[in-house]
Protein backbone atom coordinates (compact mmCIF):
# COMPACT_ATOMS: atom_id res chain seq x y z
CA UNK A 1 0.00 0.00 0.00
CA UNK A 2 2.91 2.38 0.66
CA UNK A 3 3.74 2.65 -3.04
CA UNK A 4 0.08 3.28 -3.88
CA UNK A 5 -0.05 6.06 -1.27
CA UNK A 6 3.14 7.50 -2.72
CA UNK A 7 1.64 7.52 -6.21
CA UNK A 8 -1.48 9.31 -4.94
CA UNK A 9 0.75 11.81 -3.11
CA UNK A 10 2.67 12.43 -6.36
CA UNK A 11 -0.57 13.14 -8.24
CA UNK A 12 -1.44 15.72 -5.58
CA UNK A 13 2.08 17.15 -6.00
CA UNK A 14 1.54 17.65 -9.73
CA UNK A 15 -1.86 19.29 -9.11
CA UNK A 16 -0.25 21.48 -6.46
CA UNK A 17 2.47 22.71 -8.82
CA UNK A 18 0.12 23.36 -11.72
CA UNK A 19 -2.46 25.07 -9.54
CA UNK A 20 0.24 27.24 -7.97
CA UNK A 21 1.12 28.51 -11.44
CA UNK A 22 -2.54 29.28 -12.08
CA UNK A 23 -2.89 31.36 -8.88
CA UNK A 24 -0.95 34.26 -10.42
CA UNK A 25 0.70 35.01 -7.09
CA UNK A 26 -2.32 33.83 -5.09
CA UNK A 27 -4.51 36.54 -6.59
CA UNK A 28 -6.99 34.01 -8.06
CA UNK A 29 -9.31 32.44 -5.46
CA UNK A 30 -10.15 29.02 -6.90
CA UNK A 31 -6.65 28.07 -8.04
CA UNK A 32 -5.38 29.27 -4.64
CA UNK A 33 -7.85 27.01 -2.81
CA UNK A 34 -6.97 24.11 -5.10
CA UNK A 35 -3.28 24.72 -4.39
CA UNK A 36 -3.85 24.55 -0.62
CA UNK A 37 -6.01 21.42 -0.89
CA UNK A 38 -3.51 19.67 -3.19
CA UNK A 39 -0.62 20.54 -0.87
CA UNK A 40 -2.50 19.10 2.10
CA UNK A 41 -3.49 15.97 0.16
CA UNK A 42 0.05 15.40 -1.05
CA UNK A 43 1.57 15.72 2.39
CA UNK A 44 -1.13 13.53 3.93
CA UNK A 45 -0.60 10.67 1.46
CA UNK A 46 3.18 11.08 1.65
CA UNK A 47 2.95 10.68 5.42
CA UNK A 48 0.96 7.45 4.94
CA UNK A 49 3.61 6.13 2.56
CA UNK A 50 6.40 7.04 4.97
CA UNK A 51 4.91 4.76 7.61
CA UNK A 52 6.56 1.95 5.66
CA UNK A 53 9.06 3.49 3.26
CA UNK A 54 12.33 5.07 4.26
CA UNK A 55 12.01 8.86 4.15
CA UNK A 56 14.92 9.17 1.71
CA UNK A 57 13.28 6.81 -0.76
CA UNK A 58 9.72 8.07 -0.29
CA UNK A 59 10.50 11.76 -0.52
CA UNK A 60 12.85 11.34 -3.48
CA UNK A 61 10.34 9.28 -5.44
CA UNK A 62 7.53 11.72 -4.55
CA UNK A 63 9.46 14.72 -5.79
CA UNK A 64 10.75 12.82 -8.83
CA UNK A 65 7.31 11.78 -10.00
CA UNK A 66 6.00 15.23 -9.14
CA UNK A 67 8.76 16.88 -11.16
CA UNK A 68 8.27 14.75 -14.25
CA UNK A 69 4.49 15.03 -14.04
CA UNK A 70 4.67 18.78 -13.62
CA UNK A 71 6.84 19.23 -16.71
CA UNK A 72 4.68 16.90 -18.80
CA UNK A 73 1.41 18.52 -17.77
CA UNK A 74 2.96 22.00 -17.86
CA UNK A 75 3.71 21.29 -21.50
CA UNK A 76 0.14 20.17 -22.15
CA UNK A 77 -1.76 22.71 -20.02
CA UNK A 78 0.44 25.82 -20.18
CA UNK A 79 2.08 25.17 -23.57
CA UNK A 80 5.58 25.16 -22.05
CA UNK A 81 8.46 24.04 -24.26
CA UNK A 82 9.48 20.37 -24.14
CA UNK A 83 13.13 20.10 -25.19
CA UNK A 84 15.49 17.21 -25.74
CA UNK A 85 17.28 18.21 -22.53
CA UNK A 86 14.06 18.00 -20.53
CA UNK A 87 13.34 14.56 -21.98
CA UNK A 88 16.87 13.43 -21.07
CA UNK A 89 16.34 14.72 -17.55
CA UNK A 90 13.05 12.76 -17.40
CA UNK A 91 14.87 9.59 -18.34
CA UNK A 92 17.42 10.16 -15.58
CA UNK A 93 14.74 10.93 -12.98
CA UNK A 94 12.64 7.92 -13.97
CA UNK A 95 15.75 5.74 -13.86
CA UNK A 96 16.45 6.98 -10.35
CA UNK A 97 12.87 6.29 -9.24
CA UNK A 98 13.05 2.76 -10.66
CA UNK A 99 16.42 2.26 -8.97
CA UNK A 100 15.04 3.36 -5.61
CA UNK A 101 12.03 1.09 -6.01
CA UNK A 102 14.29 -1.86 -6.81
CA UNK A 103 16.56 -1.03 -3.88
CA UNK A 104 13.53 -0.95 -1.58
CA UNK A 105 12.32 -4.29 -2.94
CA UNK A 106 15.75 -5.87 -2.40
CA UNK A 107 15.88 -4.75 1.22
CA UNK A 108 12.24 -5.70 1.84
CA UNK A 109 9.21 -3.49 2.35
CA UNK A 110 9.58 -3.08 6.10
CA UNK A 111 8.61 -0.32 8.50
CA UNK A 112 11.31 2.31 8.83
CA UNK A 113 13.10 2.34 12.16
CA UNK A 114 12.11 5.24 14.35
CA UNK A 115 15.18 7.12 15.60
CA UNK A 116 15.62 7.27 19.37
CA UNK A 117 15.53 11.08 19.34
CA UNK A 118 12.19 11.08 17.50
CA UNK A 119 10.61 8.75 20.05
CA UNK A 120 11.82 10.93 22.90
CA UNK A 121 10.74 14.19 21.25
CA UNK A 122 7.29 13.21 20.07
CA UNK A 123 6.16 10.76 22.76
CA UNK A 124 3.40 11.95 25.02
From TrEMBL:
It is a multi-pass membrane protein. The keyword Transport applies. InterPro entries: EmrE-like, Small_drug/metabolite_transptr, Small_multidrug_res. Pfam families: Multi_Drug_Res. Signal peptide: none annotated. Its main location: membrane. It is found in: Cell membrane. Keywords: Cell membrane, Membrane, Transmembrane, Transmembrane helix, Transport. GO terms for molecular function: transmembrane transporter activity. Belongs to the drug/metabolite transporter (DMT) superfamily. Small multidrug resistance (SMR) (TC 2.A.7.1) family. This is Quaternary ammonium compound-resistance protein SugE. The lineage of its organism: Bacteria, Bacillati, Actinomycetota, Actinomycetes, Kitasatosporales.
Amino acid sequence: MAWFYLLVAAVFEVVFALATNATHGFTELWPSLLTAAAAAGGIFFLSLALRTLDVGVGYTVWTGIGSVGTVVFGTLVFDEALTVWKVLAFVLIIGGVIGLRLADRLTGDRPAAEPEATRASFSG
